[in-house]
Specification:
The protein is mostly beta strands and about 140 residues long. The protein has 1 helix and 7 strands.
């Protein structure tokens, strides 16, 4: 089978170090992202969202129709003591948010939320479609 390769005219002109210069770095784009798992059954959806380092009071969940919005804020803890200096700080502090739409309308009144060990679990019941009504003809 023939092997196909793409010609890159800048490969010889620009070294590898400059290739990713205009692209956002992988570490920066992943830090503030809320990662979710979504499961579906006949009656409801279940969403599990990783929110490490977030306190329960700093989480906001909104449900509107079939759209779910999760936002949270990670607050910075007390900084270094007077006798200390920070050599490296890689932990994320700030606001993060995630919004997505599901396939069915949700029953906003019956939504349940639980937060345990940095994982937010949402149980989102599906709205039952109105039952078909038989109309008598007179």
């Amino acid at each position: 089978m023939a092997r196909l390769s793409v010609y890159d005219p800048f490969a010889e002109v620009f070294p590898e170090i400059f290739r990713g210069l205009l692209q956002p770095s992988r570490a920066q784009s992943e830090v503030a992202e809320i990662r979710v798992d979504v499961f579906e059954s006949a009656q409801h959806y279940q969403v599990r969202a990783d929110l490490p380092g977030v306190k329960k009071e700093d989480i906001s969940v909104q449900v509107d129709g079939n759209r779910v919005s999760i936002s949270a804020e990670v607050k910075r803890e007390a900084g270094a003591q007077d006798s200390e200096r920070v050599l490296r700080s890689e932990r994320f502090y700030g606001a993060m948010a995630r919004s997505f739409a599901l396939g069915s309308e949700l029953d906003e009144q019956a939504v349940q939320a639980r937060f345990d060990n940095g994982v937010l679990t949402l149980t989102l019941p599906k709205k039952q479609p109105p039952a078909a009504r038989r109309i008598t003809i007179q």
